[in-house]
Amino acid sequence: MTHVYDNILGLIGNTPMVKINTVTKDIPAKVYAKLESCNPGHSTKDRIALHIIEAAEAKGLLQPGSTVIETTSGNTGFSIAMVCIIKGYKCILSVSDKTKAEKIAYLKALGATVYICPANVPADDPRSYYEVAKRIASETPNSIYINQYFNELNIDAHYKSTGPEIWKQTEGKITHLIACTGTGGTLSGSAKYLKEQNPGIKIIGVDASGSILKGYHETGEINKEDIHPYQIEGMGKNLIPSALLFDQIDEFVRVNDEMSAYRTREIALKEAIMGGYTTGAVIEGLLQYAVKNPFKKDDLVVAIFPDHGSRYITKVYSDVWMEEQKFVNNCVHNYEEVFKTERIK
Length: 345
Ligand code: PMP
Hints:
Layout: E1 17-19, E2 30-35, H1 45-58, E3 67-71, H2 75-87, E4 90-96, H3 101-109, E5 113-117, H4 129-139, E6 143-145, H5 152-160, H6 162-169, E7 176-180, H7 185-197, E8 202-208, H8 213-219, E9 251-255, H9 257-271, H10 277-292, E10 300-305, H11 319-324, H12 327-330
Parallel strand pairs: 2-10, 3-4, 3-6, 4-5, 7-8, 7-10, 8-9
Antiparallel strand pairs: 1-2
Residues 74-75, 180-186, 234-235, 276, 278, 306-307 line the site of 4'-deoxy-4'-aminopyridoxal-5'-phosphate.
């Protein structure tokens, strides 16, 4: 039998790549999207959840009934919960009370125990979601704390899977890799592998406006003035993750909420690929990079599309949300293209 698996975890990795034909038509290079939404948990985080949990098993740190703990309301939480179901572990996630009810419902549907912690307390307050996760980890026997921002196995997961897949799928012809950075694991691990094959491959990181990562890459310092609230989830940070290997990255570009939202909807409408908010961000980053660094016809760009748009129905794909953000009235771009509800009165 082919394409038949023992359980859902057999589907993790080996994600397809698809050529982007319309949205990037002004760039002479060929642009391919690596569709991480094709993982069974619908995001790139399946790879690290499986890798980190299996590494802990190999070290004898987990037995049936053990507990896996993490602080996340995002994709990593969904992936850990999925892996825990199949492997028979408990999953505890601490999230902030800003997390939407539908996300908490999703995590609970996958069996996770969710601790909802106040968002408006300092990170070192015992009630913060960082401190709650740390306390639960220290009080729970037979448990591991994933700690994705500071876990080198996050890099290793992509060094061993995403990087080699991209090299093979492009038959070594890749010239540029571009990805949004949150923990930095996806880009760092893939970059490390790809640069070992061909040191000439350019690695481009996409940071969020409101985050310190681009500034830190350029100056080696944290510029507190860079920090402000922003809407895109999963990318950018107000601390420096050790899972982000800054020396692997040639250049960072910074994107804002509005243009990333616009691109996300444009990609859905023109490529029929319904990606998450950072899918728009990575293409916006690529188009910005191309202005200063013109591409050649033979260049082959791989852009990581990290997750699926179904998680953003009440956000970037909601006309109401777009209006609330004032993204519509600004009309810096032709929003009619991506915003065309007709209401029958
Ligand atoms: N996009 C989304 C939607 C994510 O959840 C993440 C993970 N935080 C990223 C991009 C960035 O991936 P990484 O953490 O590997 O840098």
